[in-house]
Amino acid sequence: MLIALSHIQRLYRSDEVETTALLDIHLGIEAGEFVAIMGPSGCGKSTLLNILGTIDRPTSGSYQFGGQELTALGEAALAAFRRENLGYVFQSFNLIDELTIEENIELALIYRRMPKAERRRRVAHAMDHVGIAHRARHYPSQLSGGQQQRAAIARAIVGEPRLILADEPTGNLDTENGAQVMDILQRLNDEGATIVMVTHSPSHADLAKRRVDMLDGQVVISVRNAI
Where's the ABC transporter domain (predicted)? Predict the structure, then answer.
C-alpha cells in the first residue's frame, strides 16, 4: 500500500466558529493506481488533495506514505518529502511567466541540487513525453492553454515522483485539449505512475481506474471503473 489514510479529520477554527472540512476519512491507494476524486463544491476534495500533498495538515488521524507516518514530520522534513516524492498539476498551470518552458520544468530539479547534465536529460525526456519539446524555449504566454498544461505535466513528472496529484487538470481547457491531457495522464498511469486527480467531470473520472465520491467531508463511495 503506497498511501494509507486512517481517521483523517480536518477542522478549521475562526474565532468561535469551527468548520469540519474532512470527517473520519479512511482511504488506501496502491502504487500504480489512477484515482479520481469527485463531489460537489465544498465537499472536501481539495482539502483531501492538499493533505495528500502535505500542503495542509490533518487535525487528527494517520497519513502513511510507503509505510512512513507523515503527520509527525516537521516542515523541513515535509518539504524534503515533497521534493523527492510528489509531482503537482494545477488547474491554473502555475508556470512562471519570466522563465522559458524548459526553465520552468528544470526549476524543481535545481532545488534538488541535481547535476546539470542529469537535469537537462530529464527535462528533454519530460518535454518529449508530453509533446512540447518544440516549445522548449518559448515563454508560457506564447503557448496555448493546452500546451501550458502539457508543460505543467512535464514539470510534475520530471522528478520521477512516486505520486502525481492533479487538481482539476482539465478545468481551464476546452474539450479537445482536456481530452489530450487525459490521454497523457492515462499513458503515464499505464507506464506505472500513481495518480490522484480531483475533477468535476464524470467522463474524465470514468477514465481513471477508481472513482472516489465525497460528500460533506466524507468518502461515501469508492468504486473501480470498468476500463
Answer: 6-227
